[in-house]
Amino acid sequence: MTAIDQFAAHVGLDWADRKHDVCVQFKNGERTFHVIKHTPAHRSSTVSGAKLFIVD
Fold first, then answer.
1. Could you give the angle at the alpha carbon of 7 between the alpha carbons of 42 and 9, nearest 5°?
2. Which residues are paired to 19 by β-bridges?
3. CB 54 within 8 A of CB 46
4. CB 23 within 8 A of CB 11
5. pLDDT per residue over 1-54, tens digit each?
6. Which residue among 11, 14, 17, 36 is least enclosed by CB atoms within 10 Å?
7. Which three-class secondary structure state does DSSP give residue 26?
8. Long-range contacts: 26-34, Cβ < 8 Å, 24+?
């Protein structure tokens, strides 16, 4: 079993001072990319909503 098979998705974050880039790679190799503004409201709503697009 490889690391890719052990998880529903791998998430990469680029945590900068003005925006945050996110890459989600799913088991099937599909990738999605997102940009989060650097404000408390955007970070909170994005973290809360993350479980909506990561489903095993």
1. 35
2. 37
3. no
4. yes
5. 566 567 788 888 888 888 889 899 988 899 999 888 877 766 555 555 554 444
6. 17
7. strand
8. 26/54, 29/4
Using left for φ > 0, alpha for ψ between -120 and 50, and beta otherwise, residue 54 falls in: beta
pTM (2 decimals)?
0.59
Cα 13 versus chain centre, distance: 7
Please report the pLDDT score of residue 42 as a whole number: 60
| pLDDT for res 31 | 95
**So where are the chain's domains?**
3-53
Render the burial of 43-52: b for 16+ CB within 10 Å, e for the rest. eeeeeeeeee
